UniProtKB/TrEMBL annotation, chain A:
Residues 102-317 form the ABC transmembrane type-1 domain. It is found in: Cell membrane. This is ABC transporter permease. Keywords: Cell membrane, Membrane, Transmembrane, Transmembrane helix, Transport. It comes from Neoroseomonas marina. One of its GO terms (cellular component) is plasma membrane. InterPro entries: BPD_transp_1_N, MetI-like, MetI-like_sf. GO terms for biological process: transmembrane transport. The keyword Hydrolase does not apply. Pfam families: BPD_transp_1 (PF00528), BPD_transp_1_N (PF19300). The keyword Membrane applies. The chain crosses the membrane at residues 15-35, 102-126, 138-166, 186-208, 248-274, 294-320. It is a multi-pass membrane protein. Its main location: membrane.
Amino acid sequence: MDPSRLPGFLLRRGVKAAVVILAIVVCNFLLIHAAPGDPASVIAGQSGAADERFLAQLRQQFGLDQPLHVQLWIYLKGVLTLDLGFSHRQQMPVWTLIRERLPATLLLTGAAFAFAVAAGVTLGTLAARRVGTWADSIITVIALTFYATPLFWVGLMLVLFFSVWLEWLPSFGMATVGVELHGIDAVLDVAKHLLLPALTLGLFYLAVYARLTRATMLEVADQDFVKTARAKGVPEGQVVRRHILRNALLPVITFAGIQAGQLIGGSILVETVFAWPGIGRLAFDALLARDYAVLLGVFFCTSVMVVGFNLVTDLLYAVVDPRVEVEG
Amino acid sequence: MAVSRRGFMAAAASAPVLMTVQEAMAQGVAPRRGGTLQMMLTPEPPVLQIGVNQQGPTLAAAPKIFQGLLTFSPTLEPQPVLAKSWTISPDGKEYVFTLQENVKWHDGQPFTADDVVFSIMKFHMELSPRARAIFSLIETCEAKDPLTVRIVLKQAFQPFLLMFDATAAAIVAKHLFDGQDYRTAPAVQRLVGTGPFKLTEWQRGNFVRMDRNETYWKPGQPYLDTIIYRIIPDSQSRRLALESGQVLLSQSSDIEPFDIPQLRQRPNLEVETKGWEYFSPLSWIELNHRVKPLDDARVRRAMSMAIDRNFIVNRLWFGVGKPATGPVASTTRFFDANAKIAAFNVQQANALLDQAGYPRNAQGVRFTLKHIPLPYGEIWTRLSEYLRQAMRNVGIALELESTDAGSWARRVGNWEYETTINFVYQFGDPTLGVERTYVSTNIQKVTFTNTGGYANPQVDALFQQARAAAAAADRARAFSEVQRILVEDVPQIWLMELSFPTVYDKKVRNVITTGLGVSKSFDDVFIAG
């Protein structure tokens, strides 16, 4: 890639990204308001008693008494100044709510992501190297099993095995509450809580990476330049690493880019089963409560991440494979 | 002359403490100080400032922090909390409360009669629809001295005292709210009450932590050091947490009824279904009377007769709860056991529908009704599936439409439904919790009013009579009569007197001692060693 073209590329992509994100915000806003019910009626439905004045007070406080286009305009103005609004239901700024959940979310999805990529690519490479042997069959069957099994079921089974039966690991939460832990003890405590949810979430992606790596490696291994490398006497390990794996990585990077974009979206299912205090649950609860501002805030952060990682992925292509030209 | 309860109440004031000790002694255990009680809170409430939020989870957790003037026994007798005694004038219009001495807010300020007056006349009057309806009957509410509150009503209102539990009208600190927007005041996030526990940490989506209030006004209490509510969204994970001892207590709908039989078999767990006498939630099929043929009383009666309520209680709820017999729950005041809905009888139900002129067509269907299951968990879907079967037996096709809580509230509130399921708290007295569903003056486009649109002038008149009468005997007569009319008219098809199991480790003591179950202060709860 010619480095002198980078600024122009980034500028063009930046403008495109801004337009895409703006369109996403408007679409999200309209879609959410199209769902029946509003935060005021949800609160009335949960309060056991209500009257007209109660509903009117809530709607006025939430700004729902304004026409829709005015609400949209107010929201857009906020987003443009990086103000994600205020959750009247929880009496807190949306950004505070999201920020509180960010560390837990990134820890879980990041751990699952790292585990899935590392283990998936390794297993896929192993399977491709030993294609047709029992090792390949075992890896393929395992990958297929995790790919086809629902996440929440895997989670519950892991809990039954490790928490209920063996009593090795806690079944829910992110840390032991009510006990003062410091230093290494606190880290170990979180690690113990993290293991099962990260494994549950990671296993599915592990399967995807393993299958993807195996398939593309087999495809690349048949190509002429690999034969040439072998013919000129390059050691087998180097052939696999430099010639096959590097060329097989492009689809893996594409997929990793997509998954990385979802990192802060969290995972509703895993967070639910393991009572993990992440952003997925925040969004889900906000949806049920029609807490529009929170839901839009989560959507906004997620879409920024997706757009951002798409850009990073495109740049990475050029690094891994110099033949790829970056284009706006 | 005013009827004085001072002598009686002076003895009763120390009763909760004594009862605790006696009860504990009977079990051979003296209250033990210390320990952390881990529980669960489902779903996580948005704010815990009672009044600003009145959802079930808030009403369960916030009474640890905030207190009312009174609380109520399982038979709904008033018991002293922040009011140590009270008198009621013979005409039922004047109430004088004498407050506990030496009570301090969590921020160290003294608690006085001014806080009580502010809470009643301003805070709850502004925020709470339920309190507003009752407190608007107050003519004057004044602090006679720092420890005496005098309230004069415009007219006698016999169920008035029921409004003074913490869940109905918690007393809040005037100095933190007066002159501000109560919903957005800083105190909503930094809770300050008079209760035995202070809110010390709330990690959203994770846990709520409360620690002992060292300056609590009951000497030696609370016994617990810390209460922690864990937020666990999945019902099976909650059951696992309880079974593995990671939490010691589950409340309200933490545990699905179909998990109860297995939990009953665990030797270390106690399954308690008492403690819902004050709320007495009654469930019913909510009918929209604007939809034909639901305006026909014969049709409603036939539908009611087609339902086997014992099946619902025993097979769906596994014995937690009781079959409903009418519009008033048996634990609510003025329940009349003689006014009963017609018994389960499919044959008679079919005959009644034939008579009413709704013959079966070639497919055996008389008419079709849409039905929205209550979106509050698996058990309610199972109930609606049973009802579909039961209605099919009498030739009524029930079409189930799934929805979520937001849409449900909106559609019921806007009368955009044919049939659904609802359950409503009775708050101890028919005037407070029953009347609102049946009087035509309360037909409103808001949930928990008379959304069905039932109108019967006789019913209106009787509820009004019972509301206005000062004497319990007069009220009882009116309520009995109205119950007899309603069980014939079946404006809503009552199903069950709900109860929610409280499941706890047997070493946790004094859990359910009042008619409010887990919605109490927990100042007497302790963990036996």
